[in-house]
Specification:
Chain B: This is Zinc-finger. The complex is a heterodimer of chains A (206) and B (257). By secondary structure, chain A is an all-alpha fold. Chain A has 10 helices and no strands. The longest helix of chain B is centred in the C-terminal third of the chain and has 49 residues. Classes of the chains: A mainly alpha (206), B mainly alpha (257).
């Protein structure tokens, strides 16, 4: 799995940034913005929303860095900010008034997504799977997870946080994290089986 | 062996986040239960597949411009902007010599020194001056005319031999005199028109109320001027008649001689 080990360098930068060093702050943002952006992007599957969360996260980071007690816990602290803004963004989107005929997300949409997919190349297992096509399907699969499971999976699989760190970020117990991860992986596996995606057919063309 | 790890424990095992004891215990369990191992293996494969989803580059990187000053600066920024705009306007006004002036006659503004419209006295002065010039011109013209008549007379007196010649000369002189008179009167009216036009143009720049007053006074002055001109013309004609009579008298005395 991807293990992002920025901690030693981050520690040093966090200390400098906390003392108000603008270069260190920008360096810290440079190091982390891609991670936070991708975290939010996988969560929302939407560039604009991901960008919104990323910007808010770093503005908040810059403002509240002084309140961080332990330089070593910068990473979970940063993800906690991002997670809060993700939740806020979800609430904001729900509050947003949309014309009924413009509403994209509905009850029938889930089944519609499933329908379209059965018509895709997976109806024919012999057919190889394009790289972009696979990525789009993986994104869709992530999108079908309940929010709290999706958040945990992204933090574990793509952001490389430890179970203990995820628990800290989301203010839940270690066991809840493990349980959510377990069910999430199970759902994702089920989805892959439905679409007939296996390691064999994705590596066929690689 | 009745030991059966929980789903949570199996998951921690999958991610390698167990202490050595527990890890060993679950390893042993999976050794004994290949179907459980296979299930865990499937989850591991699912993770592998989802690992295909790569990071994307951030399209517009974020940069922080200033540090803690930021919030204070954003508060003061609008006031600074207003002050800067005022300063800019003042500098611009100072550079271009823009000025304002207010007195009993009203508000006046303009670049460099403020020029006010003409006062009534000034207008009267201009008209008076103009009238003087016109009278001087007419006086000098009449002097010239009498001079030329005198010289003609002298010529006539010098060559009194031919009566017909004298008559002819007198007639042609009379005609010439008449033509000149007509030309002079034409020229005079042209000049007046031009002067009036200039006056009106300069007045149009003045305030509306003042302009109406001034126009009224111009109108009065114009009437006076016309009267005066008319009088002058009458005088001129009288003089010409006198001259003609004198000329006739001269002719008669010549004939008698």
């Amino acid at each position: 799995m991807k293990e992002i080990n920025l901690m030693p360098q981050s520690d040093f930068l966090v200390a400098a940034a906390r003392s108000g060093d603008i270069v260190a702050i920008n360096q810290l943002i440079k190091l982390w913005q891609k991670r936070i952006y991708n975290f939010a992007l996988k969560y929302f599957g939407d560039h604009d929303q991901a960008m919104e969360v990323t910007q808010k996260t770093f503005i908040s980071m810059n403002k509240n860095l002084g309140k961080l007690k332990d330089d070593g816990s910068f990473k979970p602290w940063l993800y906690r900010i991002a997670t809060n803004y993700c939740h806020e963004e979800v609430r904001r989107q729900q509050k947003k008034w949309v014309f009924p005929f413009m509403k994209v997300q509905g009850k029938e949409d889930q089944s519609k997504i499933a329908d379209t997919e059965s018509e895709s190349s997976f109806a024919n297992p012999e057919k190889t799977l394009g790289n972009q096509e696979l990525k789009d399907l993986l994104k869709k699969a992530l999108a079908t997870l309940p929010e709290e499971q999706r958040m945990v999976v992204i933090m574990k699989e793509y952001e490389g946080l430890k179970i203990r760190e995820i628990a800290e970020v989301m203010a839940i117990s270690d066991n809840t994290v493990k349980s959510r991860l377990y069910y999430a992986l199970g759902s994702l596996k089920k989805r892959l089986d439905e679409w007939n995606i296996t390691r064999e057919n994705i590596h066929y063309e690689l | 062996m009745s030991y059966k790890p929980t789903n949570e424990q199996l998951l921690a095992y999958l991610y390698g986040e167990l202490d050595a004891d527990e890890f060993q215990r679950i390893s042993d369990y999976l050794e004994a239960h290949p179907e459980e191992r296979a299930k865990l293996q499937e989850l591991s494969e699912t993770r592998m597949i989802f690992n295909e989803l790569d990071d994307e580059e951030i399209p517009s990187p974020i940069v922080v411009q200033s540090e803690h000053l930021h919030s204070e600066w954003s508060y003061w920024r609008k006031y600074v902007a207003v002050a800067a705009t005022l300063l800019l306007l003042m500098t611009f006004g100072w550079l271009t010599g823009f000025g304002l002036h207010y007195d009993d006659e009203g508000l006046a503004f303009g670049y460099t020194t403020i020029q006010k419209g003409l006062t009534e006295a000034q207008v009267a002065g201009i008209i008076e001056e103009d009238r003087g010039i016109m009278m001087d011109y007419m006086r000098s013209y009449m002097t010239n005319m009498s001079d030329s008549l005198n010289s003609n007379l002298q010529v006539l007196q010098a060559s009194m031999t031919n009566e017909d010649l004298i008559k002819e000369v007198v007639a042609s002189e009379k005609q010439k005199l008449m033509n000149d008179m007509i030309a002079v009167s034409d020229q005079l009216s042209d000049d007046y028109r031009e002067i009036m036009r200039q006056l009106i143009v300069s007045f149009s720049n003045n305030y509306q109320s003042q302009r109406i007053e001034d126009l009224n006074s111009i109108q009065a002055a114009l009437t006076n001027l016309e009267d005066a001109t008319y009088n002058r013309q009458v005088e001129l004609e009288d003089e010409l008649v006198n001259l003609a009579t004198q000329l006739d008298a001269v002719i008669v005395s010549l004939n008698n001689r």
